């Protein structure tokens, strides 16, 4: 086990004393104890901590050494050193003797566990004890909390409803038993239902009861007002259809570039008065865990599903400029720059008088996507976004290089299916019947515009490509993404991160080994602490060195559990060319299965994928070409985008090429879904506990997919230009796979598997097509760096 803490800041001894005093660990009683020496001071600090149930005053329950308990130590010792302090500290931090450490090697154990405890040689002074106690309070327990937060969860802080900061982070001082829950309706500049009146969008707010002004964490979630799962599932597109030939064209980007339409002249809602408080409330359902964490620390939280959702006006359209603008309007109201109403009919306006005008946007997947999108508007008041597993270009989510591509695990999903899922207005029968005809027409238009059959990049997709608008970003950006996320694939964050390098803003990136998940309840990384440091700086103006303290890139090792490393860059390594001519040339494979195999793999694409990577001979050998490199003599780091430069031909006038980069070598690898650790993390004091999670080593496997890519051979130049493809005629193309950051272990082999149909992600035409690769004129480009300790 190892704890990786990047959110602990260094400060002066004088500042430590000031902060210890502010949280009750340097009062008159403790000062008096300090006059009696370091041992008495240590006892007094523990007595103060024992005002909570996290620490006991029965000091005989703690051991200082194998032969002495803490009670006896306090009674008979005059001096204290690091070995004695760390022996007790490890117990306070919930580590278990003879499981996580031994008393005889407490200092070594603390270092091995990665704990930022004070390491002071010799006999300690009282100043040393105070320094060590300060460090202990900032150190993570075995079960996922800073020690000060463990004390807080057991009632150490009384609910003052006033902000208090320790080590640069907001403390649990707000009463979550008396939160205000209110609803407002923000007036947008949109008319997505074409009634000539500005659309209103509902916003739910949860905030502490306090006299001070507070900042807001805003989560834009189209799912928030409910989802239509059954109806949406019925709209899933069939992927058991042939790949269709496309008419070649000479389309340029300028031909399809999105241009914003002139603003309409719309009627505003009549204002009849102003209220100081909202009149509607709501019953909170499941909310974002990171937001729950901050509610007890003096931050308000707001949720909105945007236009075209339950209790809001308008029509839903996945990722559209209108959807983004509706969420932008919420930020503007929170920042004091737009008006809202207490309900949809009275005309009574309301201001966010409780807000300090500073907003952060949070959330994963669609939620993080809209956070990124709103940031690209440059809206005032948005100080930062924490976007996790977010889409930066919708084309790259449901399409890729001229192909309709499913997010991993969701064959047949598309923009119209997702829109159907979140059009929650249909959950109110009256509202649904009033809007059914208009919604049906909207869906028809969407299906046509997204062009599932053609798969080309067009104006519809260009309007949903937020990367074009990155230069508008003024907010600092925190990004989190899984390197094994095949739902929102790594290219989404890679391209955004690359574009952000051109801007003079702060950008922080976290790359983990998981799939489509949150990491705020991870045991081995102090992510919530880091975000506390970050948001205390961004939204409360705390001078806490957050910009320099937090690494620019933090990534989780794929080789060792509990190991998080830092990087200065991602994707800046020059690729190494690897020839594919070490086998006979040309080589061919056929993209057709027997009827029974086709049915089986359509129903079980995980088995299909595993077989495609398996080096042994089997029934899928005809459908792939595998190129294996020699065993690695030393570890290598693959850093960035791997590309295949291929000269190949199709036996038909259509063709698609897919490829997987694979790590071959029997190894226990990390789970891509974190495993519950049997503990609950408290998000305040008896407030919204969540499961503590960690990535663990799974059973040994012979191989692992590192990354993947797909292309329509008719879009080999770019996704909007369609080239001709003639049967049996070689063409040159470059297939760039999803970016990665992956350490290949010495003794393993790097392999590339090239094939056609991807039973999980592409259409499954089961067409009789033979593909041939000229290996003499083909190569693999891999950005590899030597691994240094």
Helix content: 25-40%
Strand content: 15-25%
State the strand order across the main sheet. 8-11-10-5-6-9-7-12-13-16-17-18-19
Please name the CATH architecture of the domain at 576-786: Sandwich
Describe the structure.
There is one protein chain. The chain is of the alpha+beta class. Among the domains are: 13-156; 576-786, Sandwich (Jelly Rolls), CATH 2.60.120. The chain contains 22 helices and 34 strands. The strands form eight sheets. The protein has a 13-stranded mixed beta sheet with strand order 8-11-10-5-6-9-7-12-13-16-17-18-19, with helices on both faces. The protein starts with 12 loop residues before the first helix and ends with a strand. The mean pLDDT is 96. Keywords: Aminopeptidase, Cytoplasm, Hydrolase, Protease, Serine protease.
Features:
single chain; 789 residues; alpha+beta; Jelly Rolls; 13-stranded mixed sheet; six-stranded antiparallel sheet; 22 helices; 34 strands; globular; aminopeptidase activity; cytoplasm; Xaa-Pro dipeptidyl-peptidase; dipeptidyl-peptidase activity
